[in-house]
Amino acid sequence: xxxxxxxxxxxxxxxxxxxxxxxxxxxxxxxxxxxxxxxxxxxxxxxxxxxxxxxxxxxxxxxxxxxxxxxxxxxxxxxxxxxxxxxxxxxxxxxxxxxxxxxxxxxxxxxxxxxxxxxxxxxxxxxxxxxxxxxxxxxxxxxxxxxxxxxxxxxxxxxxxxxxxxxxxxxxxxxxxxxxxxxxxxxxxxxxxxxxxxxxxxxxxxxxxxxxxxxxxxxxxxxxxxxxx
Length: 229
Description:
This protein is an alpha/beta fold. The protein has two domains: about 10-20 and about 105-225, HAD superfamily/HAD-like (Rossmann fold, 3-Layer(aba) Sandwich), CATH 3.40.50; about 20-100, Putative phosphatase, domain 2 (DNA polymerase, domain 1). The chain has nine helices and six strands; from the N terminus they run E-H-H-H-H-H-E-H-E-H-H-E-H-E-E. Strand 4, helix 9 (about 190-195) and strand 5 form a beta-alpha-beta unit. The longest helix is centred in the N-terminal third of the chain and has 20 residues, at about 40-60. InterPro entries: HAD-like_sf, HAD-SF_hydro_IA, HAD-SF_hydro_IA_YjjG/PynA, HAD_sf, PGP-like_dom2, Pyrimidine_5'-ntase_YjjG. This is Noncanonical pyrimidine nucleotidase, YjjG family protein. Pfam families: Hydrolase. It comes from Muriicola marianensis.
């Protein structure tokens, strides 16, 4: 569908290639043990996963800062499950989470297969809202850094997806016109609508079971990219 149009494929990282939920759960298991947190992990994660998505949305919209995100997503969840944790411990957990998260290397199913399939034909890049200090470690530790030519992150750009500037910066750094670029991501607002506003083609990896839409192609497994590229 896009084979005769596209030269460069831009991927989101978390939830699209790097299995954020699995790696995050493993990180919490470790840091809860290290800090003596006796809360059942499944109980915590049931509250944390949606809360984290909600706080990331606020962060993307510029309504909270990075440190607010890191603190409030934990404080909100512990309060909601009525597990008492002092602020000092919250800050220590937050720091330990960032320190250890990138050490885990689980990828979304079919990630390596898709990168191997695409890399001989297309230039591959990353556009991520993740924190600069850990995104490079995620790519290196999971063994996929070598597939990507450019890695554009929101701290480098000074704005977050879906702000048009981060996509313009990606095009500028890669020397690509938007009609020859395609964005693959899991977040409809940040990845798909953001990229389409600048003229990218898009493929939405719908891992969050969002309703059908008409904003470009939709897949539910990364391997389905082979039908389009």
